[in-house]
């Protein structure tokens, strides 16, 4: 744990007691702060009561003039659709509002002795990129501490010590609450519309991501979309060190994908760092971009190209993101539950040629209309969740579909029809292009359920196992 010492002896209000909130409460108490915390959920409040030194009480009844800071969980609205009531109370009393990543950044500056800090953000690809960087550092013999929006909360990572490198995935919500974040390497994978209900406009959403990489010693920025390329050009014009990355075109300076090869270029001189051919966990153009980002970051951290290449070849992949969960005969079963928007699902659809697609859930703005270019690859779609009617309207006349309702029924249908498909390798793909909240707590629970169902099918071979 990283104790938060910057508020020692001061009063801290904390709202939101999920995983990161509880970790923050422990870190603040360990650093000597006086913490009063609240959450609307009784179970979360009960969990906080078990932390010695935390007072669980309604923040509506505290004296805000005596509070040094409000620490807000990232899931609590800061600005849109309207500020949470605790935000309004803090603002009225001129109390700063921060998040756990900001507290991490402050502690690193004060007592981290310059511990390398890689911060990864972007609309898509940030989890895989974060996990890949962590793997490359560890496979090279380093001590990587991975957390943030993936895995462990930032403040629950091991305390600062020589040799440790911190690799933190940062959502836009976390960056919004981290005004002084200053990573050694800041990565922006890409930008597309997402979370606009929380940020109001695309411009506001992009500006939050831009601020993080602008503050980095080395900014690694994807240039395969116009908004991110604009960010790269802007911060480069300000004199910041920028490494551009691309999975779609050659770069005179930067890191790019040339087929399966990852190439680093400087002044037009190209060096092949690695070849991803045969690395199933890094299949597809989106993963080529993730690999480019990881290569650029690890080169900036001083890892050798030989170590980077060796690490890429052994990357096991990320659960719920293009995760091969089973095979039965010619049929491949892939869990892409983390694809909660159309742009993320596009990466999966681009990676296969004959797809039996399980899709749906709680839809996001735009639905799946932007995926029409991939419709010829889809043998059939199996619709689940509350989006079924909207998605059916989009697919009508273009893709055969069936309203399956649940993942159980969708898998039953897809598995049978894929087995009868004459293609060389038909794929049953769960890539919902939707949030999970209509039927599941989160995308992890959705993906775990799909994996379990697949592995219960007769004759399914499990990757790395003996089959079932």
What would you say this structure looks like, in words?
- The chain is 33% helix and 22% strand.
- It starts with 10 loop residues before the first strand and ends in a 13-residue tail after the last helix.
- Helix 9 links the parallel strand 10 (218-222) and strand 11.
- The chain is of the alpha/beta class.
- The strands form 4 sheets. The chain has a 9-stranded mixed β-sheet, with helices on both faces. The protein has a 6-stranded mixed β-sheet with strand order 15-16-21-17-19-20, with helices on both faces. It has a 5-stranded parallel β-sheet with strand order 3-2-1-4-5.
- The protein folds into 3 domains: 11-98, NAD(P)-binding Rossmann-like Domain (Rossmann fold), CATH 3.40.50.720; 101-313, UDP-N-acetylmuramoyl-L-alanine:D-glutamate ligase; 323-455, Protein-Tyrosine Phosphatase, Chain A (Alpha-Beta Complex).
């Amino acid at each position: 744990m990283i104790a938060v010492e910057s508020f020692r002896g001061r009063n801290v209000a904390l709202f939101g007691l999920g995983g990161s909130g509880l970790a923050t409460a422990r870190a603040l108490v360990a650093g000597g702060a006086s913490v009063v915390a609240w959450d609307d959920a009784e179970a979360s409040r009960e969990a906080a009561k078990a932390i010695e030194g935390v007072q669980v009480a309604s923040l509506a009844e505290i004296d805000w003039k005596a509070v040094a800071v409000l620490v807000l969980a990232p899931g609590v609205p800061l600005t849109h659709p309207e500020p949470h009531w605790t935000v309004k109370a803090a603002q009225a009393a001129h109390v700063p509002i921060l998040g756990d990543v900001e507290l991490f950044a402050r502690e690193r500056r004060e007592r981290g002795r310059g511990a390398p800090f890689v911060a990864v953000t972007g609309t898509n690809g940030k989890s895989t990129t974060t996990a890949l960087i962590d793997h490359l550092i560890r496979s090279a013999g380093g001590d990587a501490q991975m957390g943030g929006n993936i895995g462990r909360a930032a403040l629950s990572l091991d305390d600062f010590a020589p040799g440790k490198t911190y690799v933190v995935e940062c959502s836009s919500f976390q960056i919004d609450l981290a005004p002084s974040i200053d990573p050694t390497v800041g990565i922006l994978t890409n930008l597309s519309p997402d979370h606009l209900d929380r940020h109001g406009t695309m411009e506001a959403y992009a500006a939050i991501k831009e601020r993080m990489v602008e503050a980095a010693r080395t900014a690694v920025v994807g240039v395969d979309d116009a908004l991110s390329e604009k960010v790269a050009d802007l911060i480069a014009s300000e004199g910041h060190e920028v490494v551009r990355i691309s999975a779609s075109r050659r770069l005179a300076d930067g890191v790019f994908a040339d087929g399966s090869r990852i190439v680093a270029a400087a002044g037009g001189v190209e060096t092949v760092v690695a070849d991803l051919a045969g690395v199933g966990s890094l299949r597809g153009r989106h993963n080529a971009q993730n690999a480019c980002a990881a290569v650029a970051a690890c080169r900036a951290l001083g890892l050798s190209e030989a170590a980077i290449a060796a690490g890429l070849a052994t990357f096991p992949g990320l659960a719920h993101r293009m995760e091969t969960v089973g095979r039965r005969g010619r049929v491949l079963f892939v869990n892409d539950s983390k694809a909660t928007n159309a742009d993320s699902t596009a990466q999966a659809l681009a990676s296969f040629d004959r797809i039996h697609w399980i899709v749906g859930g709680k839809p996001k703005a735009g639905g799946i209309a932007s995926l029409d270019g991939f419709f010829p690859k889809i043998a059939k779609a199996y619709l689940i969740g509350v989006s079924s009617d909207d998605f059916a309207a989009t697919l009508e006349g273009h893709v055969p579909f069936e309203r399956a309702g649940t993942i159980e029924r969708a898998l039953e249908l897809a598995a049978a029809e894929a087995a009868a498909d004459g293609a060389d390798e038909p794929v049953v793909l769960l890539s919902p292009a939707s949030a999970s909240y209509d039927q599941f707590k989160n995308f992890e629970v959705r993906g775990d359920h799909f994996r379990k169902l697949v592995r219960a099918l007769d004759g399914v071979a499990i990757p790395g196992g003996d089959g079932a």
